Amino acid sequence: MVSRRNVIVSATAGVAALVTAGAAGAARGTDAGAAPPAALPEAARATGHPGHTGHVAPVERAVAPFSVRMPVPKVLQPQSTKGDNDFYVVTAKKAKVEILPGTRTEVFTYAGMFPGPTLRVRTGRTAIVRHTNDLDMGTVAHVHGGCTPASSDGFPTDTLAPGKSRDYVYPNKQRAATLWYHDHAHHMEAEHVFRGLAGFYLIDDPAEAALRLPSGDYDIPIMLRDARFDDKARMVFEKDDFQGRTTILANGKPQPYFPVAARRYRLRFVNASNLRTFTLRLGKDTQVAQIASDGGLLAAPAAVRSWRMTPGERIEVVVDFSRFKVGSQVILNDAEVGPVMRFDVGRSATTDTSRVPDRLSTLPALPTATGKRKIVLSFDRTNGRFLINGREFDQKRVDTEIKLGTTEVWTVTNDSTNFAIPHNFHPHLVQFRVLDRNGRPPAPGEAGVKDTVAVGPGETVRLQATFGPYIGKYAYHCHMIDHSSSGMMAQMKIVA
Which reaction is this enzyme known to catalyze (predicted)? Predict the structure, then answer.
């Protein structure tokens, strides 16, 4: 049953210490095949904090690992095209789909699909998406990472009533990037996304084709998330239930396998979890090339053996499966939960003309900043609310007013140190550059264009953004969305 639930959180110093120790272990990661982390004492499991990635009590798997194939989400075709405009139709509705083999689970969907259909658009072409709401509660569509007019951005209180339709206009005047779309109805976004209202929104730029990155059937979007099911295969939503969501899904399937050829693949990952952070590595520390983050291509590929994604973040890597013998089975592991999915190298590749060039893109220049702001993310134990600068979200209050075209540096601090609660930070409308993390330059994989950034307990991250090109009201919030739906969100107004 969908309901509006207040977050209930309690903590003690002893539990906070356990959480901190667990977080340190998760940061170190685990080797493939290592034993899962031990279960917490019962008291700690009862009071563990939302979003923490250090320990989830092991439970019996509902599905044998690698017993189902991972699908690739269907690309939605436009209903019509006129000039530079492409028109799409999407309906939010309930559907019963097979997630756990041999069972049907009722979920919320876009167009009856779990996850939703992929919208694959082009830079410079406007996508007009008519959303219809066939659910029995309000919804709001938001393209995460989109540079979008305020009227189409999906402000949390601009809900679409049941039975109604609305046209969202996306100009796509931005770099090629892996974005995603999801529901953003305030107080309900956590449950709506958990139950399935999410899909890929991929922006292509024809100029990128000259790089000869893997494309077509070798360009695979992978939406990762966790979930909780009862013994009748029904999804169970409880606010801040980071420990109970122990079933890991890739494109809507539990710990699936995916057949690949012995050649290069471009893998586009999005973390669509409400709270879980993934720290991924392929096989036994296989080196891969990270080529992109939230806002598109990096300046140059970064050689990585693991990559970390908090909720809402995207990372693209190129994996050369020709390094493995035909017949190999290569497991993608998470540092905490272990196997996420498996790649089966089942055939040789006749030809592979793709590559990973030494230079990928020219990052936008950083203009001179003329403004500075401080953002503090915190937790109020008294009423169990998550706050930004000491306040919880109020749609009637403008927290930050910014002149159109202004470039600012925002210093974002996670002040939830007493409870070791991780957060991240996502402003709508703008992409930003990370200037430093705890006073140190960002790692190569975080040095590109981003829209969501991890801010661990006690951490401070400085970021720079230019606010525009549209005026109006936009949200900024923690994208551990159980937190944002419990108050950790604020409103900025861009003015001419």
Answer: 4 Cu(+) + O2 + 4 H(+) = 4 Cu(2+) + 2 H2O
Q: What 3 state SS string does 296-346 have? A: EEEEEEEEECCEEECCCCEEEEEEEHHHCCCCCEEEEEECCCEEEEEEEEE
Say what the pLDDT of residue 207 is.
87
Domain final position from 316, 348, 380: 348
Number of separate domains in the chain: 3
* 426 plus 488 within the same structural domain: yes
443 and 342, same domain (yes or no): no
CA separation, residue 120 to residues 83, 130, 195, 391, 477 (Å)? 17, 15, 23, 38, 26
pLDDT in tens, 416-448: 877 899 999 999 999 999 999 999 999 999 999
Q: Which residues have a Cβ under 8 Å from the Cβ of 9 and sit 6 or more positions away?
A: 47, 49, 50, 240, 379, 381, 384, 419
Q: What global pTM score does this model have?
A: 0.89
Residue 45 located in a structural domain: no
The answer to the question of residue 353 being in a domain is: no
